[in-house]
């Protein structure tokens, strides 16, 4: 991370820029600052909603900057890519400059490195150095992962270390971020994100892609056998449950009830409970009231079947169930639509809104049509996805947690125990150092000297 | 005896503890701080008892879920987490001045939960999206992280009070811990908080993947938690840069806590998947 000299050339200058922590810092804060925009401007809304909220000029300007889908805009992706490159280059740069510390089979200790350390405990033991050496050496060999003993004038010196591997923690965290980005990329390149609504009893094979609105044909069909919704006494929804059957080439291969938080997975495709709604069924019981006689006739009606009315009132056919119907330009909600052919006169369209049972009285016709009863059908709204990148992302998650723990709470520690003859006994000096958490070293040195004093 | 009553009492006990810590710091009365610790521990036990009782009450109502499902319940746990982190610091660093900057935060959290007219303390049943084993893991990890960030924020304020007058031995400023201790304390708290924030975001992502089929959807709350993560990641890297110690680090700690607060409260003003929080 040293400043490039002129002889390094452009490549080195770029390398040094990409390897700098300063760039990491700037990128992290830039990502933080720009991410705010997308939380203030609702993303992927209808263009008309944006125009009415911001006006034509701002709408164009924001559109050019990609602010309506900013987390997928080129500039945001470039920031993320730069962060990934920065992380990789920085890690390579540091690993190569630390390789003599990181990749060591038998670490060598040098007494000079332990000379002027602040954490140091000195005590006198009444046994001679030879006795202590026979005790200390196996003790440290048990406690430390690498030990080195050397003779000094009038005594000996033992070095020990632990946790050299913890130096890799930070690289594990960096790798985990790269895995998250790679997993996300795999998902967006090879996966899909779609939805479908299926009325109870029906089967679909095509789903609608969320980002483009295009239809996608699945390699299997989904049948919704049943949908149920239950409520708490408070009126809040308790459970949405869809009974689904997967059909491959028309034969059922898998059946499962799905609820929110418990999806169905088949051939790498996951199906989630996402929404629901109701549809009237295509059958109803209708009543026909004759204005002249006041007689009421009830008949079962089915879409498309003609009913011949008594008293020579004509014929009635239920033609469709219309979602959000209109009557003379006014919205009347879901309605049954029928066609009445009186014996003399033109056929007319009859609108029977579900919400207003006596609606047809207003027409003041010879016969008043009303819906007595009808069955309701639910439809289930399903989220259908495939994301082959999830495993990579999850691997990144685990690596990140483990890596953060190792980086933050463990360290590479080294100790040096020097024992020199003093009279009939020995003066023992314990020192230690660590690559991080320097305050922990004082405790380590204190504890070690207490253990050494107590050893017999 | 209801959980709401216990938790209202907790509010005042935390308030009293904070007052004692402040008195001890301002008027140099160490016995007040020692008493403050006992009062705070009492409040903390009361807080935990209220939490446990509320859990039991939800079973009696037939809902049966951990009290971590709405704004009120999360605030109760947040206050508890702040004090848990603080007690560890007090014990580890043998310093009670930090209490004057931590207990009041727990008090404000509980006061907001108990007194705000917008927050209902009614126990409500879980809506389908919240019925998951990930609920507890997600909320607990997030709020332990937030608790650490809250205390780091308190230490950041203390640092700025002391910075520039580091040599002063006497008076209120003199009684604050040394700048090097506070610098290290902020760093350690933020490392701890960062680990838990990461775990909180990750458990949330795994949960979202099992509920909605995608681990990340750029919903405002998700995005703000990532913004918070970016700010603290920047903090952790800033220390590796030449000259970034002390005061600038303290400002970053305060900025990070601002992001935490917005993730927690501000996002409820924006539309998104976590909006059930405002129904609390």
- Strand tally of chain A, please? 18
Radius of gyration of chain B: 19 Å
- The CATH class designation of the largest domain in chain A is Alpha Beta
Greatest contact pair? A-B, 49 and 45 residues
Mean of residue pLDDT of chain A?
89
- The stretches of 5 or more residues of chain B where confidence is low (pLDDT under 50) are 275-280
Helix content of chain B: over 70%
How many structural domains does the protein architecture of chain B include? 2
Order of helices and strands of chain A: HHHHHHEHEEHEEEEEEEEEEEEEHEEH
Global structural class of chain B:
mainly alpha
Using the alpha-carbon principal axes, give the shape of chain A. Answer: elongated
Number of helices of chain B: 9
What is the subunit organization of this protein?
heterodimer
The overall pLDDT of chain B, averaged over residues, is 89
Order of helices and strands of chain B: HHHHHHHHH
- Write down the CATH topology of the largest domain in chain A: TATA-Binding Protein
The coarse overall form of chain B would be flat
Plain-language structure description:
The complex is a heterodimer of chains A (456) and B (280). Chain A is built from ten helices and 18 strands. With 456 residues, chain A is α+β, with helices and mostly antiparallel strands. In chain A, strands 4, 5, 6, 7, 8, 9, 10, 11 and 16 form a nine-stranded antiparallel β-sheet that branches. Chain A is elongated. Chain A starts with 8 loop residues before the first helix and ends with a helix. Chain B has two domains: 1-114; 127-280, no CATH class. Chain B has nine helices and no strands. In chain B, helix 1 (3-26) runs antiparallel to helix 4 (99-115) and helix 3 (71-93) runs antiparallel to helix 4. At the A-B interface, helix 2, strand 7, strand 10, strand 16 and helix 9 of A face helix 7 and helix 8 of B.
């Amino acid at each position: 991370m040293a400043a490039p000299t002129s002889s390094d050339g452009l490549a080195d200058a770029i390398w040094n820029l990409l390897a700098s922590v300063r760039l990491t810092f700037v990128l992290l804060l830039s990502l933080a600052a720009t991410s705010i925009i997308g939380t203030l401007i609702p993303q992927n809304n209808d263009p008309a909603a944006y125009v009415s909220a911001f006006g034509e000029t701002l709408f164009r300007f924001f559109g050019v900057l990609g602010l309506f889908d900013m987390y997928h805009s080129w500039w945001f992706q470039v920031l993320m890519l730069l962060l990934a490159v920065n992380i990789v280059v920085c890690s390579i740069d540091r690993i190569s400059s630390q390789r003599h510390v990181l990749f060591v089979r038998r670490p060598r200790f040098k007494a000079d490195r332990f000379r002027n350390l602040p954490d140091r405990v000195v005590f006198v033991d009444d046994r001679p150095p030879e006795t202590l050496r026979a005790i200390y050496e196996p003790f440290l060999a048990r406690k430390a992962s690498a030990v080195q003993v050397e003779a000094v004038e009038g005594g000996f010196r033992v070095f020990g270390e632990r946790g050299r591997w913890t130096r890799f923690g930070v690289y594990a965290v960096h790798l985990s971020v790269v895995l998250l980005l790679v997993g996300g990329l795999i998902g967006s390149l090879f996966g899909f994100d779609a939805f479908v609504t299926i009325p109870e009893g029906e089967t679909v094979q095509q789903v609608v892609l969320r980002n483009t609105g295009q239809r996608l044909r699945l390699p299997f069909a989904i049948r919704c056998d049943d949908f149920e919704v239950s409520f708490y006494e408070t009126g809040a929804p308790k459970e949405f449950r869809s009974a689904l059957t997967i059909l491959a080439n028309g034969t059922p291969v898998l059946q499962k009830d799905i609820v929110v938080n418990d999806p169905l997975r088949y051939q790498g495709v996951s199906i989630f409970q996402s929404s629901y709604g109701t549809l009237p069924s295509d059958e109803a019981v209708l009543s026909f009231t004759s204005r002249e006689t006041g007689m009421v006739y009830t008949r079962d009606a089915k879409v498309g079947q003609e009913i011949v009315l008594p008293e020579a009132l004509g014929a009635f056919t239920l033609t469709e169930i219309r979602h959000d119907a209109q009557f003379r330009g006014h919205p009347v909600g879901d309605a049954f639509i029928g066609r009445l052919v009186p014996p003399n006169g033109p056929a007319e369209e009859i609108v029977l809104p579900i919400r207003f049972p006596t609606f047809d009285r207003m027409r003041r016709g010879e016969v008043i049509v009303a819906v007595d009863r009808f069955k309701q059908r639910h439809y289930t709204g399903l989220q259908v996805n495939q994301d082959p990148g999830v495993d990579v992302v999850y691997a990144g998650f685990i690596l990140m947690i483990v890596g953060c723990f190792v980086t933050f709470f463990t360290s590479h520690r080294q100790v040096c125990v020097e024992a020199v003859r003093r009279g009939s006994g020995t003066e023992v000096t314990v020192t230690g150092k660590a690559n991080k958490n320097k305050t922990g070293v004082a405790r380590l040195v204190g504890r070690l000297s207490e253990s050494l004093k107590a050893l017999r | 005896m209801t959980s709401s009553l216990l938790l209202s009492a907790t509010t005042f006990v935390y308030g009293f503890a904070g007052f004692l810590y402040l008195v001890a710091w301002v008027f140099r009365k160490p016995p007040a701080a020692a008493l403050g610790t006992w009062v705070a521990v009492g409040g903390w036990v009361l807080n935990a008892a209220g939490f446990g009782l509320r859990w039991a009450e939800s079973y009696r109502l037939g809902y049966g879920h951990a009290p971590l499902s709405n704004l009120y319940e999360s605030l109760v746990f947040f206050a508890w987490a702040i004090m848990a982190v603080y007690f560890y610091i007090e014990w580890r660093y043998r310093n009670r001045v930090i209490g004057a900057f931590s207990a009041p935060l727990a008090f404000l959290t509980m006061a907001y939960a108990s007194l705000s007219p917008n927050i209902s303390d009614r126990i409500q049943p879980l809506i389908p999206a919240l019925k998951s084993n990930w609920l507890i893991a997600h909320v607990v990890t997030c709020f332990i992280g937030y608790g650490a960030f809250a205390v780091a924020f308190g230490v950041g304020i203390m640092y700025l009070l002391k910075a520039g007058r580091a040599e002063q031995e006497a008076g209120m400023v003199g009684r604050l811990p040394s700048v090097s201790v506070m610098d290290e304390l902020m760093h350690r708290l933020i490392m701890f908080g960062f680990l838990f924030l990461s775990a909180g975001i990750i458990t949330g992502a795994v949960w979202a993947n099992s509920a909605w089929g995608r681990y990340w959807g750029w919903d405002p709350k998700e995005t703000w938690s990532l913004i918070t993560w970016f700010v603290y990641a920047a903090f952790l890297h800033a220390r590796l840069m030449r000259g970034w110690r002390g005061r600038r680090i303290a400002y970053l700690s305060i900025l990070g806590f601002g992001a935490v607060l917005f993730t927690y409260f501000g996002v409820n003003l924006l539309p998104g998947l976590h909006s059930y929080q405002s129904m609390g």
